[in-house]
Design a protein that fits this description.
Order of helices and strands of chain A: EEEEEEEEEEE
Distance between the termini of chain A: 37 Å
Largest sheet of chain A: 7 strands, mixed
Largest sheet of chain B: 6 strands, mixed
Strand content of chain A: over 45%
Mean pLDDT of chain A: 94
Radius of gyration of chain B: 13 Å
Number of helices of chain B: 0
Order of helices and strands of chain B: EEEEEEEEEEE
Structural class of chain B: mainly beta
Oligomer: heterodimer
Chain lengths: 113, 109
């Protein structure tokens, strides 16, 4: 069974530029998450989808961040414009079942210069 | 406010030593998960504990869930260099999963 796929793995951009991350979850997993992780810290939830519906986006900075999950499968997270403080690892995860056990992708490491 | 406190933040030990890391909260979890994360990779689920007082073993790793379901511990026996990584606990509150800040473990050979 293929795991969660994320691309790109690394991205370096200048501040004020836009950037987008893509995630393909495990087949059959209806719930998809985007997390932000700073170095040596635990993941922090940005947004959670149930199928194509964003059911928790309370921690998403909506002035510059947006996300979509068309057809309830793949998802894209966008930042526009990026700021220096956005440098972090962006993790995508999917889950299935009552305990919300997370299956994570390898993440995208974003560096904003 | 950090809902989940993990301790210690960092642990450096010699191969063969035993260690315990802790995960504490003032809130009650419906369930709790432990993950291990290696550099450049996403966290990988190790175990889920659900019942207060539950103990689960995974080879040299022993996970315990507190009776009141507010705390948990991970004990590693005879640590190996391959155990090096960031250990994260994550508690389920209603339909939300909240991660602790993690314990960075380094096992030296």
């Amino acid at each position: 069974e293929a795991g969660v796929v994320q691309s790109p793995r690394y991205k370096i951009i200048e501040k004020k530029q836009p950037v987008a991350f893509w995630c393909n979850p495990i087949s059959g997993h209806n719930t998809l998450y985007w997390y932000l992780q700073n170095l040596g810290q635990g993941p922090e939830l940005l947004i959670r989808y149930e199928n194509e519906e964003a059911v928790d986006d309370s921690q998403l900075p909506k002035d510059r961040f947006s996300a979509e999950r068309l057809k309830g499968v793949d998802s894209t997270l966008k930042i526009q414009p990026a700021e220096l403080g956005d440098s972090a690892v962006y993790l995508c995860a999917s889950s299935f079942g009552i305990y919300n056990e997370q299956f994570f992708g390898p993440g995208t490491r974003l560096t904003v210069l | 406010t950090q809902l989940l406190e993990q301790s210690p933040q960092f642990l450096s030990i010699q191969e063969g030593e035993n260690l315990t890391v802790y995960c504490n909260s003032s809130s009650v979890f419906s369930s709790l998960q432990w993950y291990r994360q290696e550099p450049g990779e996403g966290p990988v689920l190790l175990v889920t504990v659900v019942t207060g007082g539950e103990v689960k073993k995974l080879k040299r790793l022993t996970f315990q869930f507190g009776d009141a379901r507010k705390d948990s511990s991970l004990h590693i026996t005879a640590a190996q260099p391959g155990d090096t990584g960031l250990y994260l606990c994550a508690g389920v509150y209603g339909n939300k999963l909240v991660f602790g800040a993690g314990t960075i473990l380094r096992v030296k050979s």
